[in-house]
Amino acid sequence: MTKPVHLLKLCVGADSVEDLVEWYRAHPSAAERRHVTRMWPRREAEVLAGGSLYWVVKGVILCRQRILRLDEVRGADGILRCGIVMAPEVIRTEAAARRPFQGWRYLDPADAPRDLPAERVTD
Question: How far apart are CA 34 and CA 26, in angstroms?
């Protein structure tokens, strides 16, 4: 059985989890829940075995979204890219500081911050 692995990505353009949630409210279609990135995960089977995309907001992991699938997306320049399609629900996590990086990184489930209990989440 394949063990899951997560992806870690900077949430550029959002100052808070609320900014990300509001962006999704303004763009509700499935296409907008897709994050297009240049590189395709070599560990695709592990990502699709229950992985999530953990968002780093202003240097801190604060939330995640379950990854549903990876789509091939051809850009206007003709280059094939990876569309990470995520579930619409944004799940808040415990805060975990991260240094800036480019692209995305793998995140082992043992290193992933825990989900916040619903009673600790405020909108």
Answer: 14
59, containing H or E segment? none
Residue 123, amino acid: D
CATH no., domain 6-95? 2.30.130
The SS3 assignment for 23 reads: helix
Q: What does DSSP assign to residue 78?
A: S
At residue 96, the 3 state secondary structure works out as: strand
Three-class secondary structure of residue 69 per DSSP: strand
pTM of this prediction? 0.90
Percent of the chain with pLDDT over 90: 72
Task: Write out pLDDT tens, residues 80-96.
Answer: 999 999 998 999 999 99
